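Pasting as-is:
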Amino acid sequence: YCRILFIDDDRDFKTIKIIEEDGWTHTSHIFDVKKLDDNDIRLAHIICLDIQGVGKELDFHKEGLGLLRALKEKYPYTAIIAYSAQSKGNINFFDEDLDKADRKLSKTTDPYQFILTLKDLAKDVLSYENCSLKIKYILEKEHDIQKSEYEIKMIIKRLINGENYSNVIEEFHIPNNPFILQIIESYTNIVK
């Protein structure tokens, strides 16, 4: 499964409901971000970010664009779709923070196009390579543990082959981090 998070101050953005009805059952919606370490953000594989009207809670000068930059710096292996209803405000399309988004869409894009974009990004974010890189990043940033990509891929492979999670992480001296477990579960659910 792929966890999708919409960050949008629009309480009635119909596309979210259409995406859920299309089978993206792990979709959530928050109206703004109060802290960058929010569990919804940490668990998301793909963040859909309206770059207008959000980022105010954290007082970003450029609102959603500032939030986009902060999210991409903190969670480099999380895909971000930036979108906007351009007619509602002034967006500088030459702003370098907008380039940090993995994809850009108009808020008025057909829901079908959102779904195609999600499918395309899900292939990347749930790949074996991305899974191992995300775990490596969490180990380094949150636990100051250095593991090679090879070691991490061996851990994932053993778990896919049915070995007990607790035994494997203990053998490799990895802390029992719920976010690492969630990444592995997401990947192994796709492989099975």
